[in-house]
Amino acid sequence: MQHFSRESPVATALLAAVLPLAALFLGCGQTRDPALAQRQQLGLQIDVLTWHNDNALTGLNPNEALLSPTNVNATDFGQLFSYALDGYAYAQPLYMSGLEIPGQGTRNVVFVATQHDSVYAFDANGSAPGILWQRSFIEPAAGITTVPTADVISRDIVPEIGITGTPVIDGSTGVIYLVAKTKEMVDGVAHYIQRLHALDVVTGLDVLPPTVLGNTTFVSGIYTNETPILVCGRGDGSEASEKCPDGRVVKFNAMRQLNRSALTLSGDRIYIAWASHGDNRPYHGWITAFNKSSLALEALYNTTPNGRWGGVWQSGAGVAVDSEANLYFSTGNGTFSRTPADPCQFTLPPCDPAYGDSVVKLSSDATLVDHFTPYNQAALESVDQDLGSGGTMLLPDQPGEHPHLMVETGKQVEFISSTGMTWAGTGAAVLYVMTWSRSSTTASPEYTALLRSLTIESITRARVM
Fold first, then answer.
1. Within a domain: residue 461?
2. CA atoms within a 13 Å half-sphere pointing along the CA-CB vector of 404
3. Sign of the alpha-carbon torsion through 253, 254, 255, 256
4. Is 414 within the bounds of a domain?
5. Which range marks the domain in which residue 106 is found?
6. Can you tell me the distance from the alpha carbon of 446 to that of 457, in angstroms, rounded to the nearest whole number?
7. 314 and 272 in contact (C-beta within 8 Å)?
8. Residue 464, domain member (yes or no)
9. Measured between alpha carbons, how far is 389 from 308 in angstroms, rounded to an integer?
10. Cα–Cα 20 to 30 A to 76, which of 20, 51, 68, 211?
11. Biggest alpha carbon distance in the chain?
């Protein structure tokens, strides 16, 4: 289970509900340097369409033309303006340059999603009117609100849950995709609903009808889940089904599952991952693939269909994608079992297949290709020390014996060969392990090409519990 710390600099900035936009984006916004302003007007902006800039999740802009050690200093670089939001922003803001906004002309635009179930399009240069459009997915007068923190029995996100995961933008079509969570009262019964939305970046209007990912009620201690996201299995929260060989099915629980991870666009598919609110059961790790043109569900993967937990937290990171369209992600504490003979910790046997506390590699169709699980997984599971507290980053190809590397951040930082994962840490795939001297981290790595180095965002008193 991943806890979010208010003491982290990132959390503090987000909880302030005021966004210092100019300091967050490469090549957007006003500047005190006239030369930089002129280059910006020439269109030398780099669009930020996904979490950490690319599908390898490096956070790298290899074509940076505006910022340098010379102009990034206390005199010429800093906050220029801010915009107020209607709720906290846990999602990373995104950016597109040169958009033709109806009635507003050509604008550089920053997109921000909030826990109040709003999406904003702001002028990135601070020009009037500031807010170019705002889209809300709640209607309190009709009984449609965000989800109160108390309803999910966890204070990881306060005081409400709306849009948590970072949206993704298809730059070729001008569509922004996001997941919104709402509480909707129908005949006195609370329905917890998650929807996938596709909006026009220039208007904020629906490009496609939203897809209902899940509609869950909880009445008299019984969950009712209406959802297309389901898998045969005996895992936590499963229910009877005549369509499954073992007579049990695990369904997506829209009340308990949290889309903390960023959405990822790869090819014609939108990939979405889920964990939970705290470790409040029942929940599982889910990876789903939706067609970007129809929002139809095309593939899915459950990390623990015959076990429990194994959520995809990753400190907000999305699913990483390699050059062959394979998917990479990490899981938090939960059941690990590969065969019927494997022991089942905290759940009844047999519990395979289950991949808690693991780095998992899937094909583009969400089929298991490979995995890495540390030798001490059972110990990590027993004390809630997630391997997957941070995201999985794929490094640019490196010289030497192991050119294809990934980095995972959790209680430890492990360099793993992406083409040679190994089970239970025999050591063949782990090239380097760095153990934190203080607490665990709930942050993801980024890659700095100039120094060929790695930095970990916000290594603070944030904890993994």
1. no
2. 10
3. positive
4. yes
5. 9-456
6. 7
7. no
8. no
9. 17
10. 51
11. 69
Q: State the pLDDT confidence band at 16, using cuts at 50, 70 and 90.
A: very low
- Output the DSSP codes for 388-433: GGS-EEEPPP-SSS--SEEEEESSEEEEEETT---BTT-SSSEEEE
Cα–Cα distances in angstroms (integers) from residue 335 to residues 144, 158, 298, 326, 409, in the given order? 36, 28, 26, 23, 20
Q: What is the pLDDT of residues 39-68, one digit of tens each?
A: 344 345 789 999 999 999 999 888 888 888
* CATH number, domain with residue 193: 2.140.10
- For 388, other C-beta atoms within 10 Å of its C-beta total 32
Q: Is 14 helix (H, G, I), strand (E, B) or coil?
A: helix
CA atoms within 13 A on the CB side of 309: 27
In a domain, 4, yes or no: no
Which SS3 state, helix, strand or coil, does residue 146 take? coil
User: CA 138, 144, 147, 150 torsion: positive or negative?
Assistant: positive
Name, in order, each residue with C-beta under 8 angstroms of 323's C-beta and a sequence gap of 6 or more: none
Fill in the amino acid letter for 223.
Y
Residue found under tokens 């709402």? 182
Q: Report the C-alpha gap between 111 and 297 in whole angstroms.
A: 26
The count of structural domains within the chain is 1
